[in-house]
Design goal:
It is a single chain. By secondary structure, the chain is mostly helical. The chain is rod-shaped, with a radius of gyration of 31 Å. It has 2 domains: about 1-65, no CATH class; about 80-105. The longest helix is centred in the first third of the chain and has 24 residues, at about 1-25. The chain contains 5 helices and no strands. Helix 3 runs antiparallel to helix 4.
Length: about 120
């Protein structure tokens, strides 16, 4: 009787570990699917391959899946379009130029570029 109970516990533990490992290995894919990652399929396939490598690849899959977010891309930018950023910088530059011209006392903004003077001769 005790032998059958031990055998039942052994099967229960083996099946639980089997399904637990499969559920754990699929976490990076679920993260990628939730974030609408462009490489979802590659992450899913690599997750299955990591089963054969004893989950050596699994931490890298987790990082790969969490790097991408739909609202900001790969996480290295702040989500502002480069053209919009350039227009903002140009507006700021125009504002600074007009303020500088106003402080210098002229009525129109300066349009010429000023280059720094370089020392002539052997002055050090």
């Amino acid at each position: 009787m005790l032998d059958y109970f031990a055998l039942g516990i052994l099967f229960f533990v083996a099946i639980t570990l089997f399904y637990g490992i499969i559920a754990i290995h699929d976490i990076p894919y679920e993260i990628a699917k939730h974030r609408n990652h462009p490489h979802q399929d590659a992450i899913h396939v690599t997750g299955w391959i990591s089963l054969f490598t004893l989950h050596v690849l699994w931490p890298f899959l987790w990082i790969w899946a969490t790097l991408y977010r739909e609202d900001r891309g790969w996480g290295f930018a702040d989500g502002v379009n480069p053209e919009d950023r350039l227009e903002g910088i140009e507006r700021h530059l125009d504002d600074l130029t007009s303020r500088m011209a106003m402080l210098e006392g002229s009525d129109e903004p300066a349009t010429e570029t000023v280059t720094p003077e370089t020392p002539q001769g052997g002055e050090e």
